[in-house]
Each structure stands twice: as C-alpha cells, then as structure tokens.
C-alpha cells in the first residue's frame, strides 16, 4: 500500500474588494442594500425553522392520534379522560407557578442569599414544578390528539 500526499501550498484568489463609493450617499445606499439582503436571509432561516417546528408538532400529534386509535378498544375512556384532565392539571400548574413567582417577588434577591434559603425554596417548588410541568407537557398533546380524533369521527359521521 502506498500513500501520496500533496503538500504544495495553494494560493487562494484575493478577495474581491467592494467598489469604493463615490459619495457618502452611495456608501449609505450600499449599506442599506446589504442590510436588506441580510434581513432577507434571516427571515428565510426563521421561516424554515417555523416550518420545521410546525412539522414536528404535527408529527407528534399524528403519533398520539395513532396511539389513541390503537388502544381505543382496550381503553375507550382514555381520550375523554385526557381531554378532561388536561385543563385541570394546567390550572394547578399555573396556580403553583403564580404562587412561586409571587414568593420570589416578595422575598427579592436578598431572600435567597443563603444556601439554606435557596435549598428550602428548591425543595418546596423544584421537584413539584418539574414533575407537574412534565405531566402537563405529556398530557397536552394527548388531549389535542384526542380532540382531533373526535373531530374527525364527527366529520366522518356527518358525511356518512
């Protein structure tokens, strides 16, 4: 086996220098045009990210709709229970969040200067907020999928 490496230096072409402006007005016009081009590029990237996020959300909802459809015979009340439970859990979560925010505002920065006070705050809110937030995050898409399944059934029943 033989290897050969070419280590000769290749010179890159010199970068193209932008034409020197004739006047400050021309320079400002060039800057404006460049900014407009950059803003257009940023907008295109943001549109792509939004389209991707929408596709991911639709994919997740379709997955949950599929799961609910597969388990419909074994757990016929699951979709309805999820739809009813979600607003309740969401309300509990929001009220707990409001209480936490009120306490932080009332105590201010000085209220959490010591390690003991900070640890006590985290013990009181950290685990519960994390777990409850996780449940809301899981139950929300299931409730939305159940709603979409129910709407699709109503539509199919109306056309038949």
Can you walk me through this structure?
This protein is mainly alpha-helical. It has one domain (24-159). The protein has helices at residues 24-70, 78-107, 115-159. Helix 1 crosses helix 3 (115-159). The model has no long low-confidence stretch (mean pLDDT 86).
Pick out its properties.
mainly alpha, 0% strand
Beta-sheet strand percentage?
under 5%
Mean pLDDT: 86
How much helicity do the residues have?
over 70%
The figure for the number of domains is: 1
Low-confidence parts, pLDDT < 50 over ≥5 residues?
none
Q: How many strands in all? A: 0
Distance between the termini: 73 Å
The helix count comes to 3
Name the overall outline. Answer: extended
Radius of gyration: 29 Å
Category from helices, strands and their pairing:
mainly alpha
Major β-sheet annotation: none
What is the N-to-C order of secondary-structure elements (H for helix, E for strand)? HHH
């Amino acid at each position: 086996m033989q290897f050969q490496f070419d280590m000769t230096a290749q010179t890159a072409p010199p970068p193209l220098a932008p034409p020197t402006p004739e006047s400050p007005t021309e320079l400002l016009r060039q800057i404006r045009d460049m900014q407009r081009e950059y803003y257009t590029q940023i907008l295109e990237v943001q549109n792509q990210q939004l389209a991707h996020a929408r596709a991911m959300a639709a994919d997740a909802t379709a997955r949950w709709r599929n799961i609910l459809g597969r388990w419909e015979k074994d757990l016929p009340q699951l979709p309805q229970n999820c739809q009813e439970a979600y607003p309740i859990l969401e309300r509990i979560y929001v009220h707990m969040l409001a209480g936490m925010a009120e306490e932080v505002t009332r105590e201010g920065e000085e209220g959490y200067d010591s390690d003991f006070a900070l640890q006590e705050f985290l013990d009181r809110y950290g685990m519960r907020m994390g777990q409850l937030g996780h449940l809301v995050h899981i139950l929300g898409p299931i409730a939305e999928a159940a709603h979409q399944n129910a709407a699709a059934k109503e539509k199919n029943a109306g056309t038949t």
